[in-house]
């Protein structure tokens, strides 16, 4: 169910991480090594990146498989950035949203991706959806589970919550409403990365003034570290902090 990667560090061509490595995100679109659910990530892709002096990221997304887009390979070869997020998508179910459903989603300085699925979608999270202001529901970029999870997280961020706490609370709220969901979320604002391991693989590579957080390693560097399930991971260019997450308490049955 999707693969994604976020990078912070010295400016580098996007392709150095997304295309060139032997097990890059590009390769993971058809041959992931550690994906536990699904096999081919061909239902869209995207990358968002930050340019010096502009806090709002640029974004390139398409509805089809990344290997069919020659323009992306050319763009990734020359565009350099010190912070970016890329994703390839395996759709939970067929839909007509196309490019709009491909990560990264964005608002203000944030880029967001979801690797996983919301169990029982959409009925399981109808109550959570009703908790959002109507204008935020009407602003959903797509009608998929990832778009709603992003809306729930964004509502917390707009309300002033710090990114790590907003991410953790969003995951536990959705997990409580929809047990069995897989909620590996990945977010960056260009200065920090926050991610959750909740039902699928998550790894990080840190050192030398850079941090990479990804669904799986893009090479065989022994410095890659796997993140335990039920973990919130926060990373900057100099520090990585894992924090355990607790499963939500079971809801009491309605009388």
TrEMBL record:
Signal peptide: none
UniProt pathway: Amino-acid biosynthesis; ergothioneine biosynthesis
Keyword Disulfide bond carried by entry: no
Record-linked PROSITE patterns: GATASE_TYPE_2
Record region (Disordered): 235-255
EC number(s) per entry: 3.5.1.118
Organism field: Streptomyces luteolus
Domain Glutamine amidotransferase type-2: 2-255
Pfam families, per database record: GATase_4 (PF13230)
Classification via NCBIfam families: ergothioneine biosynthesis protein EgtC (TIGR03442)
InterPro entries per UniProt: EgtC, EgtC-like, EgtC_Actinobacteria, Gamma-glu_amide_hydrolase, GATase_2_dom, Ntn_hydrolases_N
Stated role: Catalyzes the hydrolysis of the gamma-glutamyl amide bond of hercynyl-gamma-L-glutamyl-L-cysteine sulfoxide to produce hercynylcysteine sulfoxide, a step in the biosynthesis pathway of ergothioneine.
Compositional bias (Basic and acidic residues): 246-255
Record key words, sorted: Glutamine amidotransferase, Hydrolase
UniProt protein name: Gamma-glutamyl-hercynylcysteine sulfoxide hydrolase
Domain of life the protein comes from: Bacteria
Keyword Nucleotide-binding: no
Catalytic activity reported: gamma-L-glutamyl-hercynylcysteine S-oxide + H2O = S-(hercyn-2-yl)-L-cysteine S-oxide + L-glutamate
């Amino acid at each position: 169910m999707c693969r994604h990667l976020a990078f912070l560090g010295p400016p580098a061509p996007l392709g150095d991480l997304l295309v060139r490595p032997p097990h890059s995100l590009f390769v993971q679109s058809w041959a992931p090594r550690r994906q536990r659910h699904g096999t081919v990530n061909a239902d869209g892709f995207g990358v968002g990146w930050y340019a010096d002096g502009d806090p709002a990221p640029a974004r390139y997304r398409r509805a089809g498989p990344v290997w069919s887009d020659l323009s992306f390979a050319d763009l990734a070869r020359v565009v350099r950035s010190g912070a970016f997020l890329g994703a390839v998508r395996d759709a939970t179910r067929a839909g007509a949203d196309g490019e709009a459903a491909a990560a990264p989603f964005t608002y203000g300085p944030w880029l967001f991706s979801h690797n996983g699925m919301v169990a029982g979608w959409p009925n399981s999270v109808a109550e959570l959806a009703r908790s959002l202001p109507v204008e935020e529901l009407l602003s959903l970029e797509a009608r998929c589970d990832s778009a709603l999870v992003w809306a729930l997280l964004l509502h917390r961020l707009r309300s002033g919550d710090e990114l790590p706490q907003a991410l953790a609370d969003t995951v536990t709220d959705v997990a409580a409403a929809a047990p069995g969901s897989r909620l590996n979320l990945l977010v960056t604002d260009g200065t920090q990365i926050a991610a959750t391991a909740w039902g699928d693989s998550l790894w990080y590579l840190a050192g030398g003034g850079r941090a990479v957080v990804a669904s799986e390693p893009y090479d065989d560097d022994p410095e890659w570290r796997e993140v335990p399930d039920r973990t919130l991971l926060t990373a900057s260019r100099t520090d990585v902090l894992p924090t355990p997450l607790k499963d939500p308490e079971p809801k009491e049955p309605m009388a």
